[in-house]
Write a structure and sequence with these properties.
The structure is a single chain. The protein has 191 residues and is α+β, with helices and mostly antiparallel strands. The protein folds into two domains: 29 residues; 160 residues, no CATH class. The chain contains three helices and eleven strands; from the N terminus they run H-E-E-E-H-H-E-E-E-E-E-E-E-E. It has a six-stranded mixed β-sheet with strand order 5-7-3-2-9-10. A three-stranded antiparallel β-sheet has the order 4-8-11. Bound molecules: zinc ion. The site of zinc ion has 7 residues, from loops.
């Protein structure tokens, strides 16, 4: 039975190939490749509380991704960190009537050496050292006085960091999970 044999071989090939593909897709859930000009924002909501994770390439925040060496580089990095800390409440804007307060958990550098690294076509420098694809990760908890379900979150990231023009948003609440791409701060997500 040639047909049966063909089906068996096809199936065998399919099974052989499937696990690595499936693994590759789930290895970094919710994580897009590190692309200059793009930030990722993950929001997890539970009642009146939320966590907000903001991740962006160093190049798009302060212009480089190698370890800060000169005083000017260290200062540029520190300024970006404090901008994130001071302005996260407007960069990721929960509705004012929910009376939310952002509390910083941590802001730090994360090496992006395992992820695919691609450049935006125009205006971005090449990396000389392929190992240094550093991104900044900032984690906050958000404590609100009213439940967050049904509220709209708006974004003002490009206003603070003009190079960050695209946001990949992931939202997880008790009742739903959604993803959105927002360009130039245009758009919102409903919790
Ligand atoms: Zn990079």
């Amino acid at each position: 039975m040639i047909l049966t044999r063909w089906v068996f071989i096809t199936l065998a090939l399919y099974i052989q190939q499937s696990p690595p593909l499936a693994f590759a897709r789930t290895a970094h859930p919710g994580h897009a490749a590190h692309v200059h000009g793009e930030a990722r924002i993950n929001i997890v909501v539970e009642g009146t509380r939320a966590t907000v994770e903001f991740i962006a390439p160093g190049a798009s925040l302060y212009g480089f991704e190698h370890a800060a060496r000169t005083d000017a580089e260290k200062k540029a990095q520190a300024v970006a960190f404090s901008q994130i800390e001071q302005q996260i409440g407007s960069m990721v804007a929960f509705p004012a009537d929910r009376l939310c307060q952002f509390i910083k958990q941590k802001i730090g550098l994360v090496a992006d050496d395992k992820r695919a690294h691609t450049q935006q076509p125009a205006g971005h420098k090449e990396h000389h050292d392929p190992r240094s694809h550093t991104e900044v990760q900032a984690d906050f908890t958000v404590a609100c006085q009213k439940p967050l379900a049904g509220s709209q979150v708006r974004f003002h990231v490009t206003k603070v960091f003009p190079e960050l023009r695209e946001l990949t948003i992931q939202v997880l609440t008790e009742t739903k999970q959604l993803g959105a791409t927002i360009t130039n701060d245009n758009g919102s997500v409903e919790l």
